[in-house]
């Protein structure tokens, strides 16, 4: 596995680098089979294929799959706007579920876009659709921007 100084890369550079890496390192993306389909400043498209392991007790895709896909797409959209050495964490995620998804439904796609990126917080919105373009869920998020602490005054 290639090592890289994450603090020397902007959020967009880091995500573009990560998208090109082998999928052999443990991550939520690998676990769920997520792929980056598009990466631009303030906009990220992620997708995954449904499968029987995603089933809830009713036999449809668990809502947590759509929530995780949205959390990832919205958070990454925020990350694409951040300078080198600055990170983020999700403070709040609000998901609205529109319809159920079968475990054999195929590809789900999440598009996340930033709404506002400030010094301390950022907001983003996104949608998950199925292969036919039908809306599955939509969400908004608030993220806290994690800036390095300033050192002692010289």
List the keywords.
154 residues, alpha+beta, Thiol Ester Dehydrase, Chain A
Structure, explained:
- By secondary structure, this protein is of the alpha+beta class.
- The chain has three helices and six strands, in the order ααββαββββ.
- The protein has a single domain (6-146), classed as Thiol Ester Dehydrase, Chain A.
- The protein is globular and about 55 Å long.
Summed up, the domain count is: 1
In DSSP terms (H or I, runs of 4 or more residues), the helix count works out at 3
Strand order of the largest sheet: 1-2-4-5-6-3
What integer value in Å does the Rg equal?
A: 16 Å
CATH C-level class: Alpha Beta
CATH fold-level name: Thiol Ester Dehydrase, Chain A
Helix residue percentage: 10-25%
What is the CATH superfamily label? Answer: Hotdog Thioesterase
Low-pLDDT stretches? none
Q: Judging by the overall fold, what is the CATH architecture?
A: Roll
Globally, the shape reads globular
| Strands, total number | 6
What is the mean pLDDT? 93
How does the major sheet shape up?
Answer: 6 strands, antiparallel
Beta fraction:
35-45%
The end-to-end span amounts to 39 Å
Question: What string, H for helix and E for strand, traces the elements in order?
Answer: HHEEHEEEE
Q: How does the helix and strand content classify structurally?
A: alpha+beta
């Amino acid at each position: 596995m290639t090592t890289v100084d994450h603090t020397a890369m902007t959020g967009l550079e880091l995500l573009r680098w990560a998208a090109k890496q082998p999928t052999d390192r443990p991550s939520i993306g690998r676990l769920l089979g997520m792929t980056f389909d598009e990466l631009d400043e303030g906009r990220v498209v992620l997708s995954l294929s449904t499968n029987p392991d995603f089933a809830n007790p009713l036999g449809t895709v668990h809502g947590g799959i759509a929530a995780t896909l949205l959390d990832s797409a919205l958070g990454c959209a925020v990350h694409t706007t951040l300078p080198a050495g600055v990170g983020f964490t999700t403070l709040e995620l609000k998901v609205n579920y529109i319809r159920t998804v079968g475990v054999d439904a195929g590809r789900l796609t999440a598009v996340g876009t930033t709404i506002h990126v400030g010094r301390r917080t950022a907001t983003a919105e996104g949608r998950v659709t199925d292969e036919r373009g039908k809306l599955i869920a939509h969400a908004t998020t608030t993220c806290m921007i994690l800036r390095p602490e300033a050192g002692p005054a010289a």
